[in-house]
From TrEMBL:
PROSITE patterns per record: CATALASE_1, CATALASE_2, CATALASE_3
InterPro entries: Catalase, Catalase_AS, Catalase_clade1/3, Catalase_core, Catalase_haem_BS, Catalase_immune_responsive, Catalase_sf
SMART domains with a match to the protein in the record: Catalase (SM01060)
Name of the protein in question: Catalase
Keyword check for Hydrolase: no
Keywords noted in UniProt: Heme, Hydrogen peroxide, Iron, Metal-binding, Oxidoreductase, Peroxidase
Length: 492
C-alpha cells in the first residue's frame, strides 16, 4: 500500500478497533480509571476522542427542506432537443448521466412526519461531463411569492411561532393576506395534492424559468416538468393521519423499499418552451414564478427519463451533506431574469458554506465526477490533494487555459434602478381556472381546508374578509361559499 494514497473509507477498515489516528484500541468497553470505581483519567485518549466525536455528530439542519430522502440513478435522453441547447448531457437520445435526487418536505424539522401538508422538494443533481447541473425544484409548478426579498418572512410565517414553537394558521393567513400572488400556490397546497402519498407518486417541476441556448447562441425560455410513470397519488386527511400515526418516515421507507425490491421509481422529463421574442404575447409575465404556462398553448415536449435504481449507502454522507444550488448549471442551460431565481442563485451556496463549510463542494456527493481545476484553495477542511507550484493565473508555467467559450443569453439589458413589483400581476385568473377544473368533491375538500384555516380563533374578521375577497376575485362561487360557511358578508 502507498501510505500517502490512503483516503478515509470503510474499504480500508482494520480488522481490530483503533483510534481515529489508527492506534490499536485494546478495550472499547471500560474507561481508564484509578482503581476499579474511578475517577476517570483524562489521559484516556480513546475515550475522550470517542465522546468528543459523538458530541459533534450533528450538523445544522437545512434552514428549509430539512426533512428528506435521497436515491441515486440515471437520466437518459429519449428525444433530441439539441436544436434548443448545446448542453452536452442532452446531446442525443440514448445518452445517460448519473444523478442523485433528494426529495423533501419544506417547513418542518429533520425528524418531522412526512404526512404534513407542505410542498415537497424535488432536487436532481446531474453529474455531467461538463460539470454538475442541479435542477432544484418542487412538486408544485408555482411558488408563493415572486420576489426573493420576501422569502425569509414567508418562511418565518410558515415555520412555528417563535414563542410557542407551534405552526399556527393565523400567522400564515396574516402574512399571505399581504400577498395575493400566493393564491395560485395555495390552490395546490390546499388541494388534495398538498399531501402526496409518498415521494414516488408526485410530479416535479423546475418551477422557475430557465434558459436553453443552442450552439449558435439562440436562447429559449424553458420550464421543466417531471411526470411519475406510476401516476400521482395523494393522502386525504384521514389516511394521512393513519399513515403518519404509524410511521413518521413512511415516504423515506417507501422510496428505500421500492428501490431495494427492484421496483425502480421513474419519471419522464418534459419541457415547455417560449421564444423570448414572444414573451409579451401573454396576459401574464412568463418569468413570474406564480404563473404556469398553459399547456394548451405551450405543449409539453418529451426529453428523457429519470430512473432511481440505487439506494444511498449512507444517509449522512449522501443526504445531510448533499448540497444543491440552482446556480449550478452547465453550458447550454442558463438562468432567466425571474427575480426569485436570481435570489436563489445567491442563497444556496451561501447557506451551504455555513451549513457544511467553505469546502462543501469537495465532499464526494457534491464534487463533480469530471476533471476540474482552479485556484480556489485552502480553507477549513480542505482535503484536496495538490502538489503544483503555480497557484495563480495566468502563468507561463501552468498549461491549464480557459475552457472554450460557450454561448450565454444574447439579450441586451437596459433600465433604470428600481425597487418595484412586476407590471402584469394577474393574481386571480389562474387559481380561479384551477379551482373550476376540479370535480365538486375536490372543490368541497379545498373549501373545507380554507374554512378550517380561517376558523383559527386568532384570525380576525378583517383577515377573513380579505381572504374571501381574494378567493371571490379568483372564483365568485368559491368566495360565496367561503363567506357563507364562515358567516362573513362578502364585501365584493
Ligand atoms: C428566493 C427564494 C428561495 C430561497 C432564498 C431559497 C432558499 C433555500 C435554502 C437556504 C435552502 C437550504 C439549502 C441547504 O441548506 O442545502 C433551500 C432548499 C431547497 N429549496 Fe429553496 N429557496 C427559495 C425558493 C425555492 C423555490 C422556488 C423552490 C422550488 C423550485 C425551492 C426548492 C428548494 C429545494 C428542493 C430545497 C432542498 C434541496 C435539498 O434537497 O437539499 N426553493 N432553499
Amino acid at each position: 500500500m502507498d501510505p500517502y494514497k490512503y483516503r478515509p473509507s470503510s474499504a480500508h477498515d482494520s480488522s481490530f478497533w483503533t483510534t481515529n489516528s489508527g492506534a490499536p484500541v485494546w478495550n472499547n468497553n471500560s474507561s481508564l480509571t484509578v482503581g476499579t470505581r474511578g475517577p476517570i483519567l483524562l489521559e484516556d485518549y480513546h475515550m475522550v476522542e470517542k465522546i468528543a466525536n459523538f458530541d459533534r455528530e450533528r450538523i445544522p439542519e437545512r434552514v428549509v427542506h430539512a426533512r428528506g430522502a435521497s436515491a441515486k440513478g440515471f437520466f437518459e435522453v429519449t428525444h433530441d432537443i439539441s436544436q434548443l441547447t448545446c448542453a452536452d448531457f442532452l446531446r442525443a437520445p440514448g445518452v445517460q448521466t448519473p444523478v442523485i435526487v433528494r426529495f423533501s418536505t419544506v417547513i418542518h424539522e429533520r425528524g418531522s412526519p412526512e404526512t404534513l401538508r407542505d410542498p415537497r422538494g424535488f432536487a436532481v443533481k446531474f453529474y455531467t461531463r461538463e460539470g454538475n447541473f442541479d435542477l432544484v425544484g418542487n412538486n408544485f409548478p408555482v411558488f408563493f411569492v415572486r420576489d426573493g426579498m420576501k422569502f425569509p418572512d414567508m418562511v418565518h410565517a410558515l415555520k412555528p411561532n417563535p414563542k410557542s414553537h407551534i405552526q399556527e394558521n393565523w400567522r400564515i393567513v396574516d402574512f399571505f393576506s399581504h400577498h395575493p400572488e400566493s393564491l395560485h400556490m395555495f390552490s395546490f397546497l390546499f388541494d388534495d395534492v398538498g399531501v402526496p402519498q409518498d415521494y414516488r407518486h408526485m410530479e416535479g417541476f423546475g418551477v422557475n424559468t430557465y434558459t436553453l441556448i443552442n450552439k449558435s447562441g439562440k436562447a429559449h425560455y424553458v420550464k421543466f416538468h417531471w411526470k411519475p410513470t406510476c401516476g400521482v397519488k395523494c393522502l386525504l386527511e384521514e389516511e394521512a393521519i393513519r399513515v403518519g400515526g404509524s410511521n413518521h418516515s413512511h415516504a423515506t421507507k417507501d422510496l428505500y423499499d421500492s428501490i431495494a425490491a427492484g421496483n425502480y421509481p421513474e419519471w419522464k422529463l418534459y419541457i415547455q418552451v417560449i421564444d423570448p421574442d414572444h414573451e409579451d404575447r401573454f396576459d401574464f409575465d412568463p418569468l413570474d414564478v406564480t404563473k404556469i404556462w398553459p399547456e394548451d398553448i405551450l405543449p409539453l415536449q418529451p426529453v428523457g427519463r429519470l430512473v432511481l435504481n440505487k439506494n444511498i449507502d449512507n444517509f449522512f454522507a449522501e443526504n445531510e451533506q448533499l448540497a444543491f444550488c440552482p446556480a449550478i448549471v452547465v453550458p447550454g442551460i442558463y438562468y432567466s431574469d425571474d427575480k426569485l431565481l436570481q435570489t436563489r442563485i445567491f442563497s444556496y451556496a451561501d447557506t451551504q458554506r455555513h451549513r457544511l463549510g467553505p469546502n462543501y463542494l469537495q465532499l464526494p456527493v457534491n464534487a463533480p465526477k469530471c476533471a476540474h481545476h482552479n485556484n480556489h484553495h485552502e480553507g477549513f477542511m480542505n482535503f484536496m490533494h495538490r502538489d503544483e507550484e503555480v497557484n495563480y493565473f495566468p502563468s507561463r508555467f501552468d498549461p491549464v487555459r480557459h475552457a472554450e467559450r460557450f454561448p450565454i443569453p444574447p439579450a441586451v439589458l437596459n433600465g433604470k434602478r428600481e425597487k418595484c413589483i412586476i407590471e402584469k400581476e394577474n393574481n386571480f385568473k389562474q387559481p380561479g381556472e384551477r379551482f373550476r377544473s376540479w370535480a365538486p368533491d375536490r372543490q368541497e375538500r379545498f373549501i373545507g381546508r380554507w374554512v378550517e384555516a380561517l376558523s383559527d380563533p386568532r384570525v380576525t374578521h378583517e383577515l377573513r374578509a380579505i381572504w374571501i375577497s381574494y378567493w371571490t376575485q379568483a372564483d365568485k362561487s368559491l368566495g360565496q361559499k367561503l363567506a357563507s360557511r364562515l358567516n362573513v358578508r362578502p364585501s365584493m
